[in-house]
Amino acid sequence: MKHKMKVINSIQQMKKMIHRYKKQGETIGFVPTMGYLHEGHLALVKQAKEENDFVVMSIFVNPAQFGPGEDYETYPRNEQRDFALATEAGVNLVFMPDVVEMYPRESTIHISPGNQANALCGMSRPGHFDGVLKVILKLFNMIEPTRSYFGMKDAQQLAIIETFVEDFNFNTEIRRVPTVREADGLAKSSRNVRLSAEERNEAPIIYQALTLGKQVFLETQDGEEAEKQMRQLIEENSSGKIDYMTVLDYPSLKKWTRSSSEIILACAVQFEKTRLIDNIILKIKG
Ligand code: PAF
Predict the structure, then answer these.
(1) Cα–Cα distances in Å, from 219 out to 99, 111, 225, 245?
(2) In a mutational test of the pocket of ligand 1, which residue from 36, 103, 132 has the highest number of ligand atoms less than 8 Å from its CB?
(3) C-alpha angle 231-236-239 in degrees, rounded to nearest 5
(4) Which end of the chain is more exposed for a tag (fewer CB within 10 A), N or C?
(5) pLDDT tens figures, 25-63
(6) Ligand 1 atom with the shortest distance to the CA of 151
(7) Does ligand 1 come within 6 angstroms of the Cβ of 132?
(8) In this structure, which residue's CA is closest to atom 5 in ligand 1?
(9) Which domains does the chain have, with CATH numbers?
């Protein structure tokens, strides 16, 4: 029998459903998304299904996390395809509010992500993580998830949300899910469809550069040398412009030091219509 999936657009109805689940003592796994689902999202759902009684997915392209001139308007959207994929993956409930439902008025209260946003995407996309935390806080309050699932491709987002949850005692456990890649190494992303054919051919160089950087770092313990070689490989093999290419401590996202236990090699490349990010996290101690 085909699995039945509910789609809810209203916050009030969503809260009602959640209270029903909770009353029955059910655990809720939450997968927040902006839609245009791909295997990366489906990996989050798979893990959420294994670990919880119910899986709730939100689909909401959050205007608060896009800056002026960014791709909010052109962000890929396809509801029917998303519903089919979510149903097939076994999602129990999709929460899909519109912008007025989520943001009925301008709030005068702002949430600021702190030091972890002073690097990587936080530098090139000012206000981006304020917008992410704003929507995540609202979604956590509406869905009250037992566990929440985030992909490691967005490693900075994950690090900031982990800090948020820890510092403000949210009753949800954050689960990290590894990046899913195409056969040629390109990290799955909703934005990949906006690459031209030529750019799509070049894009796997991002992961090749990160892999090279990892090798150089492991051999030399020299972050600057790793950065130099990663940068050179991309510059020589891609029309995309490097936004950042760096090695930092993870999850603090400060300069790495000899006492760092994990580091991140992270990269963002701007192509004509889309910007791609990727990273490798490396345990260097323990
Ligand atoms: O990673 C994303 O898709 C978004 O940043 C999220 C977590 C759904 C918040 O809008």
Answers:
(1) 49, 41, 11, 19
(2) 132
(3) 95
(4) N
(5) 999 999 999 999 999 999 999 999 999 999 999 999 999
(6) 1
(7) yes
(8) 132
(9) 6-177 (3.40.50.620), 190-279 (3.30.1300.10)
